[in-house]
Amino acid sequence: MLARRLLLSLSIAAALALPATAQDRLGVVATTGMIADAARQVGGELVEVTALMGPGVDPHSYRQTRTDIVAAARADLVLWNGLYLEAQLEEFLLELGETRAVVPVAEAVPPEDRIGSEDYADRFDPHVWMDPTLWSRVVLAVRDAMIEAHPEGAEVFTANAAAHLEDLSELSDYARTVLASVPAERRMLVTAHDAFNYFGAAYGFEVVGIQGLSTESEAGLQRIAELVDLLVDREIGAVFVESSVSDRNIRALIEGAAAQGHTVTIGGELFSDAIGAPGTYEGTYLGMIDHNVTVIARALGGEAPAQGRIDELALN
Q1: How many angstroms separate the CA atoms of 165 and 47, rounded?
Q2: Are 68 and 59 in contact (CB under 8 A)?
Q3: 314 belongs to a structural domain
Q4: Residue 70's domain spans which residues?
């Protein structure tokens, strides 16, 4: 551990020694696509945002590369989720924060609004972006971090954040409306890992993840067997895969249910720990949540527009 920390310190020091690239805009590095999108929404033309993790990347297991170290060490501001989401990056980010502006934005969500973890003592579920109302807290934290790093842009950052908060409010209203149309007995969301607990709390769904809060945990045969029995007993007909997690365990559930004479289908692919492809609607936070809400509602018997809230989803 000591050798690893020394190597990390030397890597950061070497990166800081490199000549900075001249630019007029605030250089922001964000760990996840969700945080990077919030930074772009708030910062507008005044920021240059780099996301360390792209579509389909699992933040629980992601480890920094040499390129990441250089980018983060040279940035004016580094934004990360915190709450132990970026478990493998945490040591690096905490050490970098001793000399640079490094802000864990999800920790702006008050402890009383966080969901505790059964897997880790004194830890909280980090997937706060699954509730747009809670994500509003993160947007405000991004705004405040940018104002501190670049006070001259305060007026722009404040105005952009206010506009984005209105969008989040409209998204939340849409989610509440279409998810309420799902019959009460079908409001069970079965996914690969426990990324949707805040979603469940916000919209009244029972959430079942095969794995725990982290994709690093493994689901044993007993866990799979228990969930197969649950699907059969509750007559649940749809389960969901995730864009950043293997579908192996989900397919094991489907096969197990079939062996008991119960048909379960894949209700769709959800964005859990990563947003969609750059340049697409799903590649934004608004599109990510719109996609999830629309897919879940339609798959479980609710009513939602085929192409989502603003007719932009790339769904068949």
Answers
A1: 19
A2: no
A3: no
A4: 2-175
Going by C-beta distance under 8 Å and a sequence separation of 6 or more, which residues neighbour residue 171?
132, 286, 289, 290, 309
C-alpha to C-alpha distances, 159 to 44, 109, 177, nearest whole angstrom = 10, 21, 28
- Give 11-53 pLDDT, tens digit per residue: 555 545 444 444 689 999 999 999 999 999 999 999 999 999 9
Read off the pLDDT of residues 50-102 as tens digits, 9 standing for 90 and up. Answer: 999 999 999 999 999 999 999 999 999 999 999 999 999 999 999 999 999 99
Q: How many domains does the chain have?
A: 2
- The pTM of this model reads 0.89
Q: How far apart are CA 32 and CA 11, in angstroms?
A: 22
Question: Do 52 and 168 fall into the same domain?
Answer: yes
CATH number at residue 137: 3.40.50.1980
